[in-house]
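Page 42, continued from yesterday. The earlier attempt failed because a stray header line got pasted into the input along with the sequence. Redoing it now with the clean sequence only.
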Amino acid sequence: MAFGLPAWTDRVTASSADLPDLVPVRMVNEYVYCPRLFYLEWVQREWDDNHFTEDGRFVHRRANRESKAPPSPEEHTEDAPPFKARSVSACSERLGLSTKMDVVEGEDGEVVPVEYKRGAPPDVPHRVWDPERVQVCAQALVLRDCGYSVPNGVVYFATTKERVHVELDDALIAMTEQAIRDLRVAAAQAQPPPPLVDSPKCDGCSLVGICLPDEVNLLRATEPDDVEAVEPAPMRRLHPARDDALPMYVQRAGARVGLSGAVLQVRQERQTVAESRLEHTSQVSIFGNVQVSTQALRELLYREIPVVLYSGGGWFYGLARGLGNTNVELRREQYRVADDPARSLALARRFVATKIANQRTILRRHLSSREPGLERLNKLRERAAGASEPAELLGLEGTAARLYFDAFPRLLKMPLGEFSLEGRNRRPPRDPVNALLSFVYSLLTKEWTVTCAAVGFDPFLGFYHRPRFGRPALALDLMEEFRPIVGDSIVLAIVNNGTVGARDFVKRGVGVALTDAARRRVISAYERRLDELVTHPVFGYRISYRRVFEVQARLLARHLAGEIPTYPEFRTR
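This time it went through. Structure tokens are written below.
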């Protein structure tokens, strides 16, 4: 079996000399299984777990315990006693491979690599899938280059406790050596290989939410100007629809966040007031004077769980996170597009036009269809979609905002004070509704900053919002279309259902702020909104808003890399 290199290999950004000398043998398995999976995991350093990977890790728990090193090739003669060594590392400079084998067994002067796998032997020729056969063959070749005699390999299936022998024939060796050559060529490309088309392999892949195979394939076949007209396509829903891990918010002044085993603990006055297991925590948001222990901070950064810092009043200061996504190529492409006025403007038009469309939708849901502002907003949206320069776009967005916020007080059934004549006001907000809007927008900015960083972007370099010290411009770009349908709708809900009242606000100089108790209720409402399932307007499946944010950010990354023709905006219907 040969692994031919398709047309996507014509954009090379690295020579073979730029690549690491040694490739892990596990990556040869991934390449044979799916070249795109290999690229995302090894080149772009993307990873996510699902129950299959967790189960596989559990199966390997015993094999991963290092044992006594195996005897050298010279020591392992026919007369030497048998041995079984676990977690054995070896490498071959000739092949350019490194490996850490689950088990190596030796007897009668020969050794055999044993690879542990979850499940049972499949009903296919050889009773082992080709990726696993290639992986075991590569391990055997590495051992041979180290001087051992290796007659065959073994795959051990943990569920049925069966050992299946892998014959090292000429055909398998040729397949393995060809895969090693091909994956190095693939790794040197500027973008990942195209996704598999309607493949059952995607169903159990832990990286499906990163790869987005169905979504990318749909958009690759769509002309840039036709994305708005794409009808929701029947496709496989992303799993899970909601995130299992959720944020932790800590705003008790004087509280301390510490670590006890794998559990985050919030303590105050020597009492534990809240707990969250690390695997159930997606981020930790700190308001005001709250301390975080060094041990807790180190473990959070190690696990790539961001620590988000706010002022006591809810102003988003920034975040601390681990080394994070190492996809440098994505950031390089982001910088190139940001320096290209035409490409930046094309994206900015989409962000602003969709925001205006979603503002119009919010008004249309609550006001009469004969509301004069609806038609004016529609015309502003059309003009924004064709704006010829950033200044024009900024003016159109400002005009739309004035129309929208002039009508916004009429959506409130239980108004908390009047809007000022200027409508939307901030820094500081001068009335309760604007205080709510500012706080919710701050939470949204945090959410998008964390999402952009997790995907691999520089959150502080945008295409519409220009760089400014301390401002996450890209996060603000991407949240534009979600301000009305997430931020404003949260404010409408908590005001109209009485979640907050006039007593929940305090006057501070010329500004108005939320009390601590009210802020907790707003955070709860915000988290419930992000956990709601919503139908994606392009793909037709239902996922939570929090997952929508990640999907949109990853689709922007695919667009910048040239995989899809344009960014598909999220326009509610």
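Notes: Residues 307 and 320 are 5 Å apart (CA to CA).
Reminder to self: strip header lines before submitting.
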